[in-house]
Write a structure and sequence with these properties.
The structure is a homodimer. Chain A is mostly helical. Chain A contains eleven helices and two strands. In chain A, strands 1-2 form a two-stranded antiparallel ribbon. Chain A is elongated. The interface between A and B is large, with 98 and 98 residues. Chain B binds a DNA duplex through helix 2 and helix 3.
Chain lengths: 228, 228
Amino acid sequence: MATARRNPLALAVLVLLHEESMHPYQMSATLKERRKEHSVKINYGSLYAVVESLLNRGLIEVRETLRSGNRPERTVYGITEAGRREMIEWLTRLLSEPVKEFPQFEAALSLMPALPPDDVIDLLERRLAAQQRALEAGRESMGRAIDAGMPRLFAIEHEYELALLAAEVDFLSAFLADLRDGTFGGLAGWRRLHELRATDLSNDEIWAILIDEFKEEFAWIERADEFE
Amino acid sequence: MATARRNPLALAVLVLLHEESMHPYQMSATLKERRKEHSVKINYGSLYAVVESLLNRGLIEVRETLRSGNRPERTVYGITEAGRREMIEWLTRLLSEPVKEFPQFEAALSLMPALPPDDVIDLLERRLAAQQRALEAGRESMGRAIDAGMPRLFAIEHEYELALLAAEVDFLSAFLADLRDGTFGGLAGWRRLHELRATDLSNDEIWAILIDEFKEEFAWIERADEFE
DNA sequence: ATGGGAATACTCGATTCCAAGTAGTCGAAT
DNA sequence: ATTCGACTACTTGGAATCGAGTATTCCCAT
């Protein structure tokens, strides 16, 4: 159990080898052919590293080593019994137990007050426009595929992605509306902070003013931990 | 430019130092106090590595080195002008330009056919239950905080998380309904695949049968790339 | 006064990641 | 006939990651 279950690419490798023995390059080609590159991050460095780690853990084994002409060797790997068990267990876990992830946009939202609110409104508007286009494009290509007879099974991960994307679009629209009409809680203090930063006051002076003007609001910066 | 913009923890460090100079341990303490650990992944190893990389890139600088008693040194860092620019640019990017991410559940969904459909239904039901609980708990604690007067600004990233979580709950409910009533496209072939795997037929034989029984459907495995 | 747990402030090293590079092969077009 | 670009198949090295460990001090109850 050298490596924990970290990189889902390792799971994808197990799933492929569970179907059929193959060499690493063929794995990446197969994954790309089946459009798994959208849902599983593939890159050569990781792929070969991941294969070696699976080998060390006895989850896969070398079946044969081919050489044609002067090309590099191709090592064909197959799955072991332990590998099949690991695949089933890992996939079972991933499907049934949510894991906390850290999308970059979530980080950006939480650090957002470092920029002035009017700039942020601009930036979020751009993001919203981009995501609306992406959503429409995604829905359209999905619709065409379904109309042409593609079973949903083959693109369920894409449906999931679109569901989350739609939720983000709704979130951004609502958030922007509240920012624009000034009803967003904390906006006044946020704006004042950047007004004061544009002066040559020191940090301490700025905070003194803010605490004075927005006492109840700013007290919450330190009380955040009272709620979950 | 040693390290690109990879780890958002580096951005968080820039934001903190933009407000006030401090030593690494204080950064982690401040982030935790403000409940940023939910949106930015913090761990000591990464923190010290990230700080050093920012130092190498001239985005932060050493302000002083304190020592009290026999404790380890505390190095206090401050942001540089280049660091301020980098912070603004990076945050601007993150807020305005969507980046493709790879949630583990998306990978799991795309690899899901490796398990039998009835098992998957079970697993997704468990996930749905867990996410419904999480959603309710999250909404409740958020509601309490808002009722107690917390400005939304201080938990906007949490609102975003809840929006995505709600979307996942809806997606899972709808998906499960279609799976349960048998209307999900591709389900029959999927079920047959696992029926055949339970026999002692070879892989090639299994595929011959499946292609024969579900020709139009399975042809899509290789045609996936025709659509986006 | 003393033992134990929490908090402070890092350090370490084995593993993992990843973009870029390398190096051969093949087919089509100039 | 040969250049070109796309494909095949990996290698490399420098970063980044992450959990666990270390060592000290503070505080509080016994």
